[in-house]
């Protein structure tokens, strides 16, 4: 374990890949590894990139990686792809799109399936980003699955959230109503060489005047064309400006505190769920469920009995309950 953690911190690509696989598959030693890596996180610039399908997110990420490498920055990419509800598989196509960087030792690309998790990200994305952060990458780019207008989980993983729009992508007002627009720190009008790009930019600016007129940070609207490598410098300047704002205003500390609070609650909830799943197999609680099925106990009393018993004896799970969920 110590050797693997040390290799990750040294930037060993095979060790980084193995660590992320442990995270994705729920390896028994996953938590022990993450505990060793956590003190070495917090340095990387985390940028989330989201938007509707067809907005050109993957192409934009591909070109942005090249732009950052030309500046001498090391880059890791976590690209999340949808998992089929029928086969359970995922077409991890972003690694195919980014073949130009496959042999670059300063770039690490990992595709992850959502595995049924909503919100545009895999459940393991946060931990994977921490592994890459601990590995010493300067920038970690997180690309969401892009299944609609509800991928807001990225704001809890990234320091800066980029929302990608395109000409012909629908009414901007409707997009603002959908929720994803409210999480943007930067707007990108991609495919800006197409007709209508300036109109989309003007619509976003008008909506920002309406909904964010008194906000301390006004999201800039940047036009890019991934196919022509246009606007990448302006996009990265906007990311850099937002990071400076986070540091100077104290908003970055507030966001990190909120992220840690959510992480602790999520980890605690996951562990409680695991404990509850084990508890339900114990004879006292199995009998309690039979009473619920027979109508002798209502589900609310049974749930209270289960939680109370787990809290009283979290390890041994020896409490027994009568027909109304009272200890006997």
Automatic annotation (TrEMBL):
Annotated keywords: Chaperone, GTP-binding, Hydrolase, Nucleotide-binding
**Pfam entry (one):** MeaB
What is the top-level taxon of the source organism?
Bacteria
Query: One GO molecular-function annotation for this sequence?
Result: GTPase activity
Record Gene3D superfamilies: 1.20.5.170, P-loop containing nucleotide triphosphate hydrolases
What family does the entry list?
Belongs to the SIMIBI class G3E GTPase family. ArgK/MeaB subfamily.
Q: What is this protein called?
A: Methylmalonyl Co-A mutase-associated GTPase MeaB
Q: Which organism is it from?
A: Calditerricola satsumensis
């Amino acid at each position: 374990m110590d050797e693997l953690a040390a290799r990750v911190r040294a930037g060993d690509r095979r060790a980084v890949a193995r660590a992320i696989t442990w995270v994705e598959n729920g390896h028994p030693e996953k938590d022990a590894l993450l505990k060793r890596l956590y003190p070495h996180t917090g340095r990387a610039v985390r940028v989330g990139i989201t938007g509707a399908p067809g907005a050109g997110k993957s192409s934009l990420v591909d070109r942005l990686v090249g732009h950052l490498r030309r500046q001498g920055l090391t880059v890791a990419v976590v690209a999340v792809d949808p998992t089929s509800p029928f086969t359970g598989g995922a077409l991890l196509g972003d690694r195919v799109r980014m073949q130009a960087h496959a042999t670059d030792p300063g770039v690490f690309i990992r595709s992850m399936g959502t595995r049924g998790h909503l919100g545009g990200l895999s459940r393991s994305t946060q931990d994977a980003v921490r592994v890459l952060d601990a590995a010493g990458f300067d920038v970690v780019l997180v690309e969401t699955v892009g299944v609609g207008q509800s991928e807001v989980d990225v704001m809890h993983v990234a320091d800066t959230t980029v929302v990608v729009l395109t000409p012909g992508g629908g009414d901007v007002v409707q997009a603002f109503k959908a929720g994803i627009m409210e999480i943007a720190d930067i707007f990108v009008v991609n495919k800006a060489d197409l007709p209508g790009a300036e109109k989309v930019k003007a619509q976003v600016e008008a909506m920002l005047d309406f909904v964010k007129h008194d906000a301390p940070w006004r999201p800039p609207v940047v036009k890019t064309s991934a196919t022509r490598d246009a606007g990448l410098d302006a996009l990265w300047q906007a990311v850099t400006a937002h990071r400076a704002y986070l540091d100077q205003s104290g908003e970055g500390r507030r966001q990190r505190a909120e992220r840690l609070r959510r992480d602790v609650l999520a980890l605690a909830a996951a562990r409680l769920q695991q404990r509850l799943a084990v508890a339900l197999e114990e004879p006292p609680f199995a009998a309690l469920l039979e009473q619920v099925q027979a109508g002798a106990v209502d589900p609310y009393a049974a749930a209270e009995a289960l939680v109370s018993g787990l809290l009283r004896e979290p390890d041994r799970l020896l409490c027994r309950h009568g027909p109304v969920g009272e200890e006997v």
